[in-house]
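Cross-check.
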Amino acid sequence: MNKYIFAYISILTAGAVILRPPENLTRLEGDRADFHCKAEGKPNNLTFHWLRNDVPIHSSYFTELSTRVVVQTDGTLIINPTSKADSGKYTCRVTNGIEETPEANAWLSIQYPARITFNPSLQYLPLNLSGIIRCYIESNPSLQFVQWTKDQRVLDPKASPGISILSNGSLFIERVTTDHQGQFTCTPYNFHGTSGSSIDMNVLVEDPPMFAIIPKEFYQAEQRGTVSMACSARVVSGPRSPRLNWRRTDGVLIPSDRTRQQDGFLIITNLRKTDHGSYDCVLENEVATLVASTTLLIESTTPHAPTNVTVDVGPFFARIKWQPAYNGGFPQHYVIWYRQFGSSTRQWRTLRVRAADDTSSFTVYNLTPDTLYEFQILSRNQLGDGMFSEPVIVRTADVDSYATVFPTDSSGVTYVPTIVKPSGALPASPFAVTVISTPEGAHVEWEGPQNSSVPIMYYRVEYRKMNEQWGRSSEAIPADGRTFYLAKDIQSGITYEFRVYAFTLTSFSEPSEIVRFTLTSDFAGNLSPTVAIVAGVVGGLIFFVVLTILLLLCAGCARRKRKAKRERYDSDGFHPENDTLTLKRG
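Predicted model, tokenized:
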């Protein structure tokens, strides 16, 4: 009788797992919304927690919502009825007390007819200026159109020159006249219709406030100095007299401890570099708001940071453009800082832009394709470095591994790009590698892959001494029919290993087979014919130069001796132009 032994393996405990996450929902306001969240675990004593926008749904933060919410035992979240305010992210979090707590998210969008949110009974338009009659609307889905009436008649903007409806539903009037005064209503519509019209809005046309003095286009001042920027309003009596205030255009607060406003003038003392910028003189009342702007230039400072930096990329380059900022009163130049993004080990590289003060673009070459880079621009003048621009992070374009054209640098010269992160199809490996001794060194030859579907751009030969690390490498050898390399920096009597790689623009092959080679001492101790000829020519030239120098030296010595002899005769009273010599033969 056969006996069978059966083994049963049972998982006793396991953390909760979400099998069916909740799905995004779109509901009309007032309808019911059900979020399903199916999970399991061992033990199966699951507890479901629901959150809205990362806050527990039954917390005191959602007091009103919690009265309309039910969480069933199977994890289903029911919201009934729904409200516009319920839109947002909902998170299902499950636990059985073991291991981590899984969670899943879904979004709820509540739609409703377009509606009016605010009903002002009175609005003003400024005479002879542009004006807006506002209609305060909310809508989901987006607004389709708004119907306007004036004095209980439908107003067709297309039939009213100078009047148009803005994207938010408000009525824009290009130039206000007294004819635009009246009683208006607006009614918004979307896919679900409308919740109704606004109340009647009385629109009055009145004279706007006016400037008496406007600030100059710009003011210049030195650090630690004082500046007074002029601005004032025309005096108007009545309940709608204008108010005048100053502000910075960029929203930065004006320092209260160093500024004061006097008769509309803005006075800033103990000026600093940070005070540089654009300022607005704001004149307003119920009818209109007018703004007059000026620029404060703080001189004799380091430059300000360039703005509006954009980067256009290719596979191997990035063209950077920027808006030059104020130079501090001195000529400035720029330094491009860049690095591969996302690695703390990647050091910043810098490139100085050697061009005019108003330069606003530069191209960085020799980048790696399909790689994130971070760019910043630093401005500099004779007082030192300014501030960095905001960083810009971009990814270089990918390159086709079948490309057959080398990239070019700033001078238009082609170069071999560095492959940091190989990508694309790999070329086949070179084969039939041979190494022979020559008087000049080791001559390496190989065969390129036959009928390769991946185009090869160049080769590299790598070699090392036996039992050492690979380290020596040849320059890039273009794949233009040349399949050999001469290694000159090797020693006789030592065994070397050689291998060859094939490269595309983006990747490289597996190495060829390794070939071992020892340079023979016969070739290592002899000069090649070419070297011998060159040595003979150089030796002959050296001999000729030395001989010429010796002859010139001898001639110079002879001349000096004859001159010395004449001088000696002259000192003894012998003057050939006055005396006659009598020669005696003995």
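The radius of gyration is 44 Å. The first helix runs from residue 63 to 66. Passed to J.P. for a second look.
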